[in-house]
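Protein details
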Amino acid sequence: MARFLVVSLFRKAKEQKALGLQQVQGLLIFKNISIFAPMKKELLEEREGAYHTPVLLKESLEGLAVCPSGVYADVTFGGGGHSREILKQLDSRGRLYGFDQDADAERNIPSDPRFVFVRSNFRYLYNFMRYHDAAGKADGVLADLGVSSHHFDDRERGFSFRFDGALDMRMNSRAGRTAADIVNQYSEAQLADVFYLYGELKAARKLAAVLTRARGEGKIETTGQLAEALKLFTGRDKEKKFLAQVFQALRIEVNDEMGALKEMLRQTLRVLKPGGRLAVLTYHSLEDRLVKNFLKTGNFEGKSEQDFYGNVQSPFRLVNNKVIVPSDEEIAANPRARSAKLRVGMRINTD
């Protein structure tokens, strides 16, 4: 039996605003949040295999140290692979909240009364957990920051240069600007910043200049047009790596991935209870640096704070002092796991 979210019509206006509620046809619902009927088991299992292969699954669950009666949040639900394994370890008292802003994820909702699906960006983690009286009580938060294979393989989403499709790249296809908007509307200087900061491209300025000239001859609206505009910029031997960096930079900018990640990480301090665990899977150096610094110091600059006596103050204790990476066997079975890194921290009481 599916679990549905029911929100009272008599909530105070102040609470509605704080939680991002809006009134639609006489009903109050969470803004950008939906609770949907689950998929039939046989269809769910079929889709799971095609949608996404969970990376470092065993290691992630070991890092969370799942308590059968605990409260957990999978803030990157996606294909639901990690969530289903967490549910297997929960008893009837356990609860799991799955967050995802992508409408496609709705098809993967498990039929389980212990599970609540939240169609929302994980940057709103605290508001939703607070609404369910779970803020400060969560035993674990899991975040797999990798882009799903499903996204890369869907030409209509525009995440990959392997296909010619709309230059979109939005995780939430209902809102926000597209990659085409950025390519065609950003100034040359703004484009250079995006490619340098998020693609880590040394030739960001030259790249921005090339795109500015190319769009002057006509709008760049498809992935194929973007790849064609950049053909003369790099040799064939480095083309794939170069395009991957360009597409990564645009995707991060489109979805404000770094901003959302910072907000979510900060909110885990108010969501996790003392002893609760935060497990994060990263796939490129930008996000891994943020997670590493946050778990070590509680900030993103990596600067340790000290108390009056000189003792280092951090809201987390590292569970794995050495970063966890996939085995050769896992990489052979799932090549897209090769860049994954898992870091786990335990929330400690610093009061």
About this structure: Residues 1-50 have pLDDT under 50 and may be disordered. The chain has two domains: 13-149+258-347, 155-256.
